[in-house]
Amino acid sequence: WAAFIAFSLCIVSGIAESQCLEAMEPGYSEDAPLLKAKLGSQRSVFVPGHRIRMNVVPMFLNVFVPWGVFIFCCGISSFWIMYAHPGVAWLCICSVFGIWTWMAATALWARRYEADPTWFTYTALVVLIFAIAGTVTGLGNFKAFSKPFFDIRDLKVVHDLDASIVPGKNVMDGGIFGFSSGNQLDGLRSWHFRWKTNYCVAPIITNGTAPVTQEYSYWAVGKDCCSHSSSDFRCGAWGYSGTPGGIRVVDEGDLKYYRLAVQQAESLYNIMAPNPIFVTWSSEPFIEVESWNQQVFKNYLFLAAMSLICSIFLMSCATCSFAFLGRSRSAYATQMLDDPSYQQGGYGKPMDYT
């Protein structure tokens, strides 16, 4: 303790640390090695005037690790594995959040026990943001394009279908329908059901005549593409003059409203539709379905590029923030302390440290 007090007085007197250590008795370093190691160690970045030294390795990792997490989560939730094996897909995504939990624990430990700033907190925060963003955007991409594509692909293709002869119960497993020449929309018997959105339906007939089976089994559908008060169907390729086709509607959220629209049409026009099949009227159904699969990859590549840009931007902001640590003027270098009169012990007398 005597040595520590003497060293403290030496520092207060304005003498450098190295000179104070040299002025100490020769046995000081042997008697108090821990004190010497503490006083002689490198100062923290939070000591004024001591700037942080940036390491390029963690900077590089903090750009590409969050980006890789985004690519992984977005890819898992966008493509085939989410459709065929959703349990495996969610297990992979949960494993990412499990790793993030370990990273968050490491960041909390570093903030508690490490005096100098570290990258652990930034890494944990950005990885969490990118993991959530990748999962959410991937699920949106999957719901909009991947799932409809795989649903239609798992159903069979029906060629040369005559809507007036073949009842709907015979092709309930159809996904893409190629109608024979002469099949067209019956605009005079189209109708709608209104619930926030206008759900429009129109029966498909052959050569303008009623079906031979007396069952209107095939209905072209669409949203907000018909009149609210009359028979006016303008959905899909309604004006196409060639051989038409249809793509099966498999979204259960829309099917229930289309069924209600058909029920209203049955009551209004006195027709029967016991097993309605709903399709979107398309001039090129095969090309349109394949375009959904292509759009999934386009969206995925766009999201991957945007996430890399965001990762670089966030890394740049964090680097600038860390770079300014230790650049401020010392809190101890004030005019009051630099004033020579402050060193006087009152009334112009020198300070007595004894």
Structure, explained:
There is one protein chain. With 354 residues, the protein is of the alpha+beta class. Strands 1, 2, 3, 4, 5, 6, 7 and 8 form an eight-stranded mixed β-sheet that branches. It is elongated and about 85 Å long. The protein starts with a helix and ends in a 16-residue tail after the last helix. About 11% of the residues have low confidence.
As a whole number of angstroms, the C-alpha radius of gyration is 37 Å
Q: Give the termini distance in whole angstroms.
A: 16 Å
Structure classification? alpha+beta
Mean pLDDT: 80
Shape verdict: elongated
Number of strand segments: 8
Helix content range: 40-55%
Can I get a quick summary?
The protein is 51% helix and 13% strand.
What features would you highlight for this structure?
single chain, 8-stranded mixed β-sheet, elongated, 51% helix, 11 helices, 354 residues, alpha+beta
Secondary structure: elements and pairs:
Blueprint: H1 2-12, H2 17-23, H3 28-31, H4 33-40, H5 56-78, H6 80-84, H7 86-113, H8 120-153, E1 156-161, E2 174-179, E3 183-185, E4 191-195, E5 197-206, E6 218-223, E7 245-248, H9 252-269, E8 277-282, H10 285-323, H11 335-338
Parallel strand pairs: 1-2, 6-8
Antiparallel strand pairs: 2-7, 3-5, 4-5, 5-6, 7-8
